[in-house]
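Q: How would the structure tokens look for this protein?
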Amino acid sequence: MRTTDYHTAGEPFRIVDTAGSGLPPVPGDTAAERCATAIGPGGSGTAPRRSPLDDVRRFLVQEPRGHAGMYGGFVVPPDDDGAHFGVLFWHKDGYSTACGHGTMALGAWAVDTGRVAAPDDGDAQVRIDVPSGRVAATVHRAGGRTTGVTFRNVPARVGARKVPVATTLGLAEVDIAHAGACYASVAARDLGLEVTRAALPGLVRAGQEIRAALAAHPGTWHPGGPLLSGVYGVILHEELPGTPFGPHQRNVTVFADGQIDRSPCGSGTSARLALLAEDGRIGPGEDLLHESVVGTVFTGRVVSGGSGDGLRTGLRDGSREGLVTEVTGTAYRTGEHAFVRDPQDALGAGFLL
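A: Here is the predicted structure in token form.
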């Protein structure tokens, strides 16, 4: 199995182009339908049914070829001629409907491989169909090199505010926003935590408890149906001194079943922007400087919104409108691989610790 690996602000992304991999086509007419096929009847995003395709996911994401923090995607056909290709995002526990850092990596990959033509100096837009809709990666180029990627997400909407959640670290007030996937946001200090590497065990535990506690909360429901509903990630954030251009925060996103996003989380940054916009803390022309637990940075901004001023109206779920956001970061290729499985290898299918 051949892959091309990237990292976006520290978070890995392993790319499998199904067209050249020997894998059979994934049934479905859209990325959303193909994602449902990959999950399987009766399965969920974090508990997919076993299948030949899911065995490939496990083969690539688990040890000894991957690790518990691995991330990647199957490149599949687009929904229609309006996009260059589609993708099914996956991680150690299953599949996700959105992935901002993966979209940035895919934009860089599409240009680096010549799949999408790009100038030596200037920008190229890569349109990608993902399970939550159509997104775009604008690849910035200078001197024949990719210098950055800007991810434009599906519209972000606020689902609920100040939801009380009891954790073993205390009571937290949680905000819920949908930005291709559902994210719950909580101030780390409310749980006596800081967003640091040393605090990761407590942050992960809090994220898992909050995700479990919100399993049936109506704010996690998305009008698009069950595939887009339910908390995918919990964002534990802290305030940093603002910049002349807008707010400055650090976060760690705990997603799926306790995975840690090494990047500032692309789709999660969109969710944070929706909440900050509703609070009146960010508007057009301003940027959110968003740091990760490893010190990497995404810059997020509001592009447009719903009716009226586009920022404090039309953001709640149930509306057809939402907040359009962009997130800029960097993505770098880390390697190309030809993974094999020896039939005599008892651990060949992969394992996790």
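The first helix runs from residue 31 to 39.

The chain is about 15% helix and 40% strand.

Upvote if useful.
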